[in-house]
Write a structure and sequence with these properties.
This protein is mainly alpha-helical. It contains 6 helices and 2 strands. It starts with 8 loop residues before the first helix and ends with a helix.
Length: 110
């Protein structure tokens, strides 16, 4: 598991189960259920490294769409609506992608 030592399998499973239906994904709820919202900046940087599949230093829209599949390969892809809302929330500088600092801020925001 890519997140071994950072997140528990049970928490990941519960988070994925809570958003199985299309358009039921909310990033804040997912971050809370997985325990990501309580992780350190260093741990979140490691998680970011997994999510940044092309190792560009950013999470782009295509990577966000497959966000949940990083946690479990059989998970569904996010809908266009979910992906755009997720990107809009995390992309604070308006460049169309989420950098590591933007990701850390999004995950830990209340």
């Amino acid at each position: 598991m890519a997140f071994a030592g950072i997140l528990s399998d049970a928490d990941i499973e519960a988070a994925l189960k809570s958003c199985q239906a299309p358009d039921s994904f909310t990033y804040k709820s997912f971050f809370e259920k997985t325990g990501l919202s309580k992780k350190s900046k260093e741990e979140l940087a490691k998680v970011f490294g997994v999510l940044d599949q092309d190792k560009s230093g950013f999470i782009e829209e295509e990577e966000l769409q497959k966000f949940m599949q990083n946690f479990k390969p059989s998970a569904r892809v996010l809908t266009d609506k979910e992906t755009k809302a997720f990107l809009a929330a995390g992309d604070t500088d308006g460049d169309g992608k989420i950098g590591v600092e933007e990701f850390q801020a999004l995950v830990t925001s209340k």
